[in-house]
Amino acid sequence: MGGIDCVSLSPPFHLQRNTSISRESRLKIKVCLCVYKFSGPADTPFEGGVFPAILKFPKDYPLNPPTMRFTCKMFHPNVYENGEVCISILHPPGEDPNMYESSSERWSPVQSVEKILLSVLSMIAEPNDESGANVDASVGIFI
Fold first, then answer.
1. In this structure, which of 8, 20, 113, 114 has its CB flanked by the most CB atoms within 10 Å?
2. pTM for this structure?
3. Residues 54-93: tens digit of each pLDDT
4. Is residue 53 a part of any domain in this protein?
């Protein structure tokens, strides 16, 4: 089974637990980054691979979702050529202008980083080829 290895951590949720950082210092933080490594899930084309990704938190987190980008080449239907991950949980809250996904599938402030990571791991194992960020991967690798 694939897994997640947190390599470096400095996201906002850790800062909130750290009482030694003043409120003023926390408010000055504009963007926080986390670096994760995903192990390719068994019985998938990604088995045995290690895929580093960056989770970038916006200054208005948790009202808006972080973005995730793989820092290695990733030929996957739900990953753009620049490595950006395209899954519902990382889409801004509200109604989908394309009317493809319901608002309950999109980001909300109650979502957790753990849920994002598990969603990405699930996405690696079971791509959604109907919502292709990379059309070539949608029709190529998963036929």
1. 113
2. 0.73
3. 999 888 889 999 999 999 999 999 999 999 999 999 988 8
4. yes
